Every structure is written in C-alpha cells, then in structure tokens.
Amino acid sequence: MTRLLSGAAIVTSAYVGLLSVGELDHRRGLLAAVIVSFWLICVATTVWVSRGSAHVRRPVMTMALLALAIQLPGVFTPPHSSSDAWRYVWDGRVTLSGTSPYRYVPLDDHLAALRDPILFPGLTPDQHSGVTTAPLPADRVRLLQRAEADARTVINRPQVPTIYPPVAQLWFAGVAALTPWSVGTLGLQIAGALLAIAVAAALAAWLLRRGRNPLEALWWAWCPTVILETGNGAHVDVLVAALVLGAVAAATTRPGRRASTWLAGLLLGAAAAVKLTPLVLLPAFMPLRNNVVRRSWQVPAVAVGTLVASYAPHVLIAGGLVLGYVPGYIVEEGGPNRAGLLRPVVPDDLLTLAMLVAMGAVTLWAVWTTSVEAPQHVALVLFGSLLLVTTPSYPWYSLPLVALAVLSRRLEWLAVPVAGYIAYAGARVPSVGAIGYAVAAAVVISVAIRRRRGPAPSGSAARVWRDS
User: Fold this and answer.
1) Using an 8 Å Cβ cutoff, are 243 and 271 in contact?
2) pTM beyond 0.85
3) CA of 325: how far to CAs of 101, 164, 170, 322, 450, in Å?
4) Burial 252-266 (b: 16+ CB within 10 A, else e)
5) Domain that holds residue 175
6) Number of domains composing the chain
7) Residue 94 domain-assigned?
8) 268 found inside a domain
9) How far apart are CA 374 and CA 394, in angstroms?
10) Would residue 161 count as lying in a domain?
11) pLDDT of residue 458
C-alpha cells in the first residue's frame, strides 16, 4: 500500500506541475514536450507500482479513490488543450431550450436569447451577429473559412452546425440541466471526471471477476490521455469508452445468452450515437467460427438499430440538417494530416480507397478471428487500426482504445495515444504526426511479434509493460 500511495503522489504532483504551465492550445511545441514528459512519468510510476504492490483490500473502491485523486486538479482548472467543451455547453443549452441542436449554427440570431457573457464575450443577446444558418460549402477552402473561430464567442466553429450525434446531445443536455450558466465548462469537467472514475472502478471489478490483478486498471486511471482529456478536457470520448466497456462486459458475462447479446448491442449502438467511430467495432461482435454464424448478426443489428432510432426524432425535426457538420468534417479532415502512414506511398486521389481497403482487410480478419468469449482483443485491433490508418490529430480519440488495451492486456497499444499528442502538437507540420504514428505502429508490431515468439525473460521491463 505504501508504494501505491507513493505512486499516486508522484503522478498527482506531476499533473499539478503540468497544469501550472498554463494554457497550451496555442503553444503546441511546449505542449508536446510537457505531455511526453508526463507520459514518461506516468508509465514509469505505473510499472513501478505494478511490480511492487501486494494484495489490496477492497480493490474496486481503492481504484476509484486513486482515480478520484488524480482527476481533482484538472477539474478545477480550465481546459488546457482544446475548446471542445464550450461547444458541448452550447449544444446542451440549445437542446434544453427545445430547439434541435442541428437546426441552427451558434452565431445564428435565432438563438440569441441563449447567449451569455461567458460563451459570447463579444456579443450580447440584443446584438445582431449577421450570421444565418446556410448549407455547408463543398469546396474545402471555403469550408475552412466558414469553420474559422470568431472573436465574439469562445465556441469553436461557430458558423457551422454541431457534429455530435444524438446520445452525445443527451449527455450535454443532462449535464446542462444540472449546471448554472455562470460556471461554464465546470459541470462537464466534473461529469467527465466521474465517468473516468467509474470506468476505473468498472475495469477493476471486471479484472477481479476474470481472475486478474485489479490494479491493472491503473493503466487507465493513470494514463495521461485519461487524466488530461476527461476531468480537464471534458471530452465526450470518455462516454464512448464507458459504453464500449459496458458492451464488452455484457458480451463476456454470459457469452451467447440473448440478454447479454442484446445489452451489448444496445450499449455499442449508444457508443456509436455518441461518436460514430465505434461502428468500426461491430466485426468484433460478429464471430463466424465455431458454429455461431446464426447469431453473429445480433449485436451488430441491435447496435445499428439503436443508432438509427436515436437519430429518428431529430430527422423529423431537422430533416437533412441532422447530419450536422459530419460532411464538412470529412472534407476538412481531407487535408495533409490525413492518412499520414499511407500518404507517402499512395497518390492523394487514391487515399480514401486505400484507407477503405486497409480497414476492409482488418475487418475480414476480425470476423474470422473474434470469439464470443473475448471480443475485446479484436475490438482493440479494429479501433487501433482505425487510428493508425487515419492518423487523427486529436489525442482524445484514443480514450476508448485505452480501455480496450487494459481489457486485452495489450499495453503496447498505448503508444498510439502518445502519437496522437505528437500529431496534435505538430498539426502544422504533417510529417511530425506521421512519424509519431509510424513509431507507434512499429511498437505495436514489434511487441506482437515478440509475444508470438514467447514470454519475455522473468522480471524484465518488457514483461512488466506487456503483462502487468
């Protein structure tokens, strides 16, 4: 227990030091240096604690308390690396007003009554913005102009509609209902921290039931991506991670049972209705071996049905506007940072096809390899492959990956979130992100090869990294 408490003190102190540096969104070089250093401290501390901690009484409660301790400093500090939380606040407020968040852009005067000095420091409710909701331009240059920031508001992309799916909007609205306008993003930060703590406790409980060391959940609780992007960044991806964890737990509790199957599908569909990326996980729940073909469709069917049902009310209200900024985001992300590992060897006009082929190959492997008893292993590869193929510059996209890495005991995949921070810091120099993701891919592949060859020597650092 002494080593565990010492480790908690080290990680928390390092986090407080990081927060003391100040806002980093506009100082990307410093952000990279600080966060990479923080990663090294967190990984080294977790390895040290994992190697020396004895049996802990009440491990689930202990894990929750350890996660709580590390979340507290960030909750009461404004978001450091992203302005997304301000958009969440606005979307929740719009939904509570009875207006579909897909109907109007934030600067549209139809929503002027919802403005306050915190979200709109340069625009009062009685002032006209001169902005009306209009179809998104197809041209990437004009789209980027439309998506630019506006000094009158802290909301990002205030002239384009929301991108977030319906279950995310329910999350924003639920938090907004409990949060005074005067506290800004604090409600979302508290909610994000509570979700991160709940995931840590749930991971510990799941590991305990599987006969594994519940302290392995420290790889989630003390992961820098979790620490930075939940209680501080308030990113909705933590809700995705929680729902994906729930889907895996449901599917593995009583494999093959109808109730478990339907619950897994419902949770996976809800995750996709928070962010669409969990759709890539569907093949992990579609086992085609061992005479289970007849029920391989159930989880994907329930998941897709859940996603469609979540959009249905908004389609009735907003029609085609329900897609929000999704089409624009696809165009926006078609820039030089996209597919950084494929771009050097694939012509630009074939990049989309190459990404589809790459993910198609992984999907075919997944439906043949996955099993009812352990879908988390294939789910990890699917989600990790999606990140390696698309090379996003947003590190919080990796939050579900961190949970899956802990479930699968494949900690080499944590190199991918590190690459996400490198890509984020070097967004204006695409080669920097590509190099980061190339190193992450090399780590994943090399560890996978070593694992196939046999276990590392007893007590080695490599073994602690892979098997702690």
Assistant:
1) yes
2) yes
3) 11, 8, 18, 9, 43
4) beebeeeebbebbbb
5) 84-184
6) 1
7) yes
8) no
9) 28
10) yes
11) 43
Does residue 359 sit within a domain? no
Which residue type occupies 144?
L
pLDDT tens digit at each of 468 positions of the chain: 788 999 999 999 999 999 988 776 677 778 788 888 999 999 999 999 988 666 778 889 999 999 999 999 999 898 887 889 999 999 999 999 999 999 999 999 999 999 999 999 999 999 999 999 998 888 888 999 999 999 999 999 999 999 999 999 999 999 999 999 999 999 999 999 999 999 999 999 999 999 899 999 999 999 999 999 999 999 999 999 999 999 999 998 876 677 888 999 999 999 999 999 999 999 999 887 654 555 668 899 999 999 999 999 888 888 878 888 888 888 887 777 788 899 999 998 899 999 999 999 999 999 888 887 889 999 999 999 999 999 999 999 999 999 999 999 999 999 999 999 999 888 778 788 899 999 999 999 999 999 887 655 444 444 444 444
Amino acid at 147: A
The two three-digit tokens of residue 214, written as one number: 């519940």
Residue where the block lists tokens 């979700």: 195
Give the chain's radius of gyration (CA, Å).
22
Please provide the distance, in angstroms rounded to a whole number, between the alpha carbons at the two ends of the chain: 17
How is residue 200 written in tokens? 């840590």
Give the residue carrying structure tokens 């279950």: 167
CA distance 69 to 197: 10
Q: Which residues contact 451 (CB under 8 A, 6 or more apart)?
A: 466
**197-218 CB burial, b ≥16 within 10 A, e <16:** bebbbbbbbbbbeeeebbbbbb
Token pair 């190339």 in the structure block, residue: 438
